[in-house]
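To the team - zinc ion complex, inputs and output below.
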Amino acid sequence: MGRWTWLAAAATAAIVLGIGIGWMLSGKESAQPAPEAKVAERELTTGSVAARMAAAAPLAQPQAVPTQAFPQQFPQAPTPPQQARPAAAMPSSAPAKVAAARCANPDALGVTRTVAIDTTGGPGFGSEQFKAYDFLEAGEVVLTFDDGPWPNNTPAVLAALAAQCVKATFFPIGKHSTWHPEILKQVVARDHTIGAHTWSHVNLAKKTVAEAKDEIENGFSAVAISAGRPPAPFFRFPGLSQTPELTAYLAQRNIGIFSADLDSFDFKLKNPDKVITSVMSKLDKRGKGIILMHDFQHSTAVALPTLLQQLKAKGFKIVHMKAKDAVVTLPQYDAAMLKAQTGQTADARPTASVVRTIDDGQ
Ligand SMILES: [Zn+2]
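Output:
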């Protein structure tokens, strides 16, 4: 996966832009920012990363670099098999070829269908903030996990999902991804979908637009570098705290916004049994939905095996979201992130060509 592949994705995005104009317009109309009071009430799930731990890397200082030089240095993630997708399928109504063939558990919950989402024009999903694209049928649920990757908890979530042969969507934090790239690569290798959730999980509504854009772009670039491939153009605002300026920016970047239909509030409950009760009781009322949970939360990792069993027992069906195209990250943010993580610059030469022994004292 090199820069040229990314450029091809950019070209594809430009071509489909024309096709997606109608959708873009309707998507903008549908993008209703959360009421101020609602945003104010909502706690951030992990809080600002910067507030909790020392910065692992500075924010990007965009700089001019040859765009084709540095992506070759990206560590490559294992490539899961890609399924062919019909063009502009959103959502696909065709039943996915369920991964049952690879599933060792004959009684697994499994994936009922997979949808390919075209994020041209920045559509929003999840009835807490968006109403337009409700693609789930009665009884269907989408599992989403935020704020990882995190040791122990994320691997436990992956194990629980694998045991039931289901796929989910993860919204990793940029900084966490740079700290634990090997865990993020496990998520990718298991064919889950990854998006992004900012660089440091600050409340973007409290930042300047320029600062918020840096948070968004650094988040995508950090996830791309850590995962070894660009993620889906799927974004979730920390605390679901969005602004009209930023939803417009994401629309321009062709990045979809994922709110939720059903918030588990697992970060508040901090108890596996309560997490299960929270999700199942809300599902009983709504009958379907995009569920917001956190692979960062220990209680969720512990709750998930039982929660998935209960979903199956109650007849709920899992829908897996994929992106029609990967996100097109911005080269200057990629370069800044790469430099921050590795100390390498785009024009880095091998040490031996920079420092050469000319006298070894013999
Ligand atoms: Zn979060």
